[in-house]
Amino acid sequence: MTAKLKEQLGYDAPIFAFNHCRDVVVECTRAGGFGVLGSSLFSPEELDQELNWIDRHVGDRSYGVDILMTSNYDESTQKVAGPLADSLPEAQLRFVDEVLAREGVPPLPEEIERERRASMAARERYITREGVRALVDVVWRHPKVKLLVSALGVPPADIIAKTHERGMLVGGVCGAPEHAERQCAAGVDVLVAQGSEAGGHTGTISTMVLVPQVVDVAKGRAAVLAAGGIARGSQMAAAMALGADGVWCGSVWLVTRESDLLPNQKAVLLNYRSQDTIQSRSMTGKPVRMNRSRYTDAWSAAGAPATLAPPMQKVLYEYARSRIDRAQRDDLYSYPVGQVIGMVREETTVREVMLRMQNEYLETLERMGRQTESA
């Protein structure tokens, strides 16, 4: 499967770079890896603009797109005519206002808040089961996209079939063996076995345990990429030894020079240890590994209300984050990030990360070879 996947996607090194920033996607792809653009909260128009830009900058190489095809969300939001922010429950909205007031974070100026709400209203419905179809339609119009990944559930059968008709592979993220079985049964080509160490939406099984289980489930039906806790070549070698066909990395790119995070946001992440990341529902309503902050602490404290189902919790979080960002309150700032952030101590470039990982991978194989010879 490793050779076949390489032939189908056209990369040189089996390093998949997941990121929401188009510059990271392009730089990884141009450096011989395979960039995958995270498209959560893009409108179809915005996604088309991003993909057009990537198309122009990747040359003759291909890349992927990751879409939140969540199967569990608040279906009542489909019946809401206006902005979802207008339908936020009073208890949760009041709680956020009280937390931010207690922390001394002021409301946004009226004009900025109007602009934020308008921007959010244009994007917020494209993370539902039906809304993602408009995003998939955009992806299908870009032939350089060779991999469409569903981040939060099994893709609908018609989307899988039509994606295959266009010569693209379909991927699915899984956090447990049963997730992998459902993805394989649906006809997915690539399984992203994402362990609990990973940033973003995660399950509870660690990567070292999960990957061989998913490999056993795949049994030649799908390629397997290991995700979670991978930022060095030695970790890449371990993943390949477990049977993976490649590695899916996310957190290591967040503090690269090409990343679109603000300088103060990168500084926060660079100062975090591996044990400073937690799993919290405060961002999307589903378990997300992120860096711990005073904001996440508030949601886990006694008396905090229940988190909302997707997409409403994300709408609430974006409201809070906009105020936190404007106030530049690093102690309240949280971002989806995995435990490997504790291994990243300085800003570097995507190309340097790619080169270092590949060199360390080869050095690890050589060291293991010497150990075998002396055994």
TrEMBL record:
Keywords: Flavoprotein, FMN, Monooxygenase, Oxidoreductase. It comes from the Bacteria. Its EC number is 1.13.12.-. This is Nitronate monooxygenase family protein. GO terms for molecular function: monooxygenase activity. SUPFAM superfamilies: Inosine monophosphate dehydrogenase (IMPDH). The keyword Disulfide bond does not apply. It is an enzyme of class 1 (oxidoreductase). CDD domains: NPD_like (cd04730). InterPro entries: Aldolase_TIM (IPR013785), NMO (IPR004136). It comes from Paeniroseomonas aquatica. The keyword Flavoprotein applies.
